[in-house]
Design brief:
Blueprint (H helix, E strand, L loop, with lengths): L4 H10 E10 L2 E10 L2 E9 L8 H17 L9 E4 L3 E5 L3 E3 H4 L5 H16 L2 E2 L9 E4 L4 E3 L6 E2 L5 H21 L6 H8 L3 H8 L1 H12 L9 H16 L6 E9 L3 E9 L5 H12 L7 E5 L12 H8 L13 H12 L13 H4 L2
Helix pairs in contact: 4-5, 5-6
């Protein structure tokens, strides 16, 4: 399948290809730059020309929902700006920030206040997002504010009828679930009551439609995890981790997923060890083990970045694997952290799908 001529002409003239963010049976999403009427800007492109034929109809439906919702939300400043939309592709503005599961805004009451205001703006405009249970659809901008993205399941209402009120209630309840995870002490009594009471539609969905949905998405479409690694990250990565740890020279390892233009989804293993020449040995051992396909990239590092509990900071490692280096800067707490990351960034392996998004602060030290 190819893009319509008019779409292809616009993208050829105005789009500069960048980093692949995601590829599934519903669309291909990449980050790049777009020549808008106000000059060149960072942007995100969603296109349908690379989806398989058998998923094109639902992909087209989701695309139309997102295009309509983004157009309606254009001036709300709570999500990406719709910069251009064609028949099978659209370009939306890039929000300078990271997803909720990467930002981990523990105790950030201001963020959740901002998120509630953003949701109120959407609902006043008649837009219900309908997919806010996913942390990756909530962003924490570098300005500290909350933004929402991925409007493929959004519904636009002309009136505030019963269906709208149910959808809006569920949007709010899902936001409050995230607030409970990251700032539980800030929940008000009213918010706790909302959390304790699902709508009837949500209750019925949990015992009926959700089971069918999961059977289709996990079985047919291989959607398994929020990071986009699918079955490889969920099923293969734990096996590969144990195999790598069997090598006595390895202290620890962390495996993350990244979007790859050739294979769709790749795995990237960061291995904590002293011997930089260990990479070839580990790859040979994984092949000899005849287990899951080895990671596309194996990088030996002197030490893995870790949180206060001593766990590897996979949110940072995933950004390295995806070449989203400029998004790492807001996650750095000190100059020591930046210096620590320098050697990892300088030796990173995924240079195939690369674009000049590197933050100066991380590369000029």
């Amino acid at each position: 399948m190819s893009l319509p001529n008019e779409d292809a002409a616009v993208l050829s003239a105005r789009w500069t290809e960048g980093v692949l963010l995601k590829r599934d049976v519903f669309s291909t999403v990449e980050r790049g730059r777009f020549h808008s009427d106000n000059g060149e800007v960072d942007a995100v492109l969603r296109r349908l020309d690379q989806v398989p034929w058998w998923s094109y109809i639902p992909a087209r439906h989701l695309f139309a929902r997102e295009r309509r919702a983004l157009a309606l939300a254009r001036d709300l400043d709570v999500g990406p700006e719709l910069l251009w939309a064609g028949r099978q592709a659209l370009v939306r503005g890039f929000i300078d920030g990271v997803a909720l599961h990467l930002a981990k805004p523990f105790g950030d009451v201001a963020y959740f206040h901002s998120a509630k205001l953003a949701l109120r703006k959407l609902h006043r405009a008649g837009i219900c997002h309908n997919d806010l249970a996913k942390e990756q659809n909530w962003l924490r901008g570098n300005d500290g504010r909350a933004y929402v993205t991925d409007f493929q399941l959004a519904a636009c209402f002309k009136t505030r009828g019963r269906l709208f009120r149910i959808a809006a209630y569920e949007d709010l309840r899902h936001l409050l679930k995230h607030k409970r995870s990251y700032a539980p002490d800030a929940l008000t009594p009213k918010e706790r009551k909302i959390l304790a009471r699902k709508s009837l539609v949500a209750s019925v969905w949990l015992v009926t439609g959700k089971k069918v949905y999961q059977a289709i998405t996990r079985g047919l479409f291989n959607f398994t995890d929020r990071e986009g690694g699918g079955r490889r990250l969920v099923n293969d990565a734990p096996v590969l981790t144990e195999l790598i740890r069997k090598n006595p020279a390895v202290r620890d390892t962390a495996i993350v997923a990244f979007a790859d233009r050739r294979s769709g989804v790749g795995l990237y293993a960061f291995v904590e060890a002293d011997l930089t020449a260990l990479e070839a040995q580990l790859r040979n051992e994984l092949v000899a083990a005849k287990g899951p396909k080895p990671p596309e990239h194996i990088q030996v590092v002197q030490a893995l970045p870790r949180d206060s509990a001593g766990k590897p900071r996979t949110e940072i490692l995933q950004l390295v694997a995806m070449n989203q280096l400029d998004l790492i800067e807001p996650l750095m707490a000190s100059e020591t952290d930046r210096a620590f990351m320098k050697s990892i960034l300088e030796s990173r392996k995924n240079l195939r799908d690369r674009f000049n998004f590197e933050a100066a602060d991380l590369n000029s030290q």
